[in-house]
Amino acid sequence: MPLNEHLRRVEIRKAALRDALESCLHGVERVVLELGCGHGHWLTDYAAERADAFCLGIDVIGDRIDRATRKAQRAGLANARFLKAEASELLEMLPEGVTFESVFVLFPDPWPKKRHWKNRLFNASFLGALAKRCASGSRLYFRTDHDGYFAWAEEAAETLADWKVAKDGDWPFERETVFQSKADSFQSLILERV
Prior knowledge:
This protein is of the alpha/beta class and 194 residues long. Helix content is 39%, strand content 24%. It has helices at 3-24, 41-49, 62-74, 87-93, 124-131, 147-158, 178-182, and strands at 30-35, 54-59, 80-84, 99-106, 134-144, 163-165, 187-193.
């Protein structure tokens, strides 16, 4: 595909995302975000428990978003929305005045091969951009079953000026995810926005 065509498609996708965000976040100031929400099992259960929170889940696979949306609709959840989006584009297109109170990254693709590490979501560049959309005290919850990715995340966290490791943090909501059910073990990291 020629570069011009690719750039045109990206702009169309970002404009559609901006419109979808403005529609679903109208009047909302604080959001609980799940990055890579899959079929929405975890976030719909979270939203059902926390009726006071507006919950947004994103994933890059449209079928997952369709299933998650149906799940939230069947549960009658007015406080849960799901959108097809890339995390970096979500941050770019997020309406002004909207901040994240909590962000969950549960069992993301670990990209285990060294040449693919650049694709890992949990990296200093992305976490710096995310911090700009989080208020002081906001929490980022990360969980993985991949030891190498966890070590990478801990190392990245040590270099960040906008985040600190929350030593006193408890996981706010437990609901076994699909990937968690398949894991022999997992590790969790909680960061707090400085």
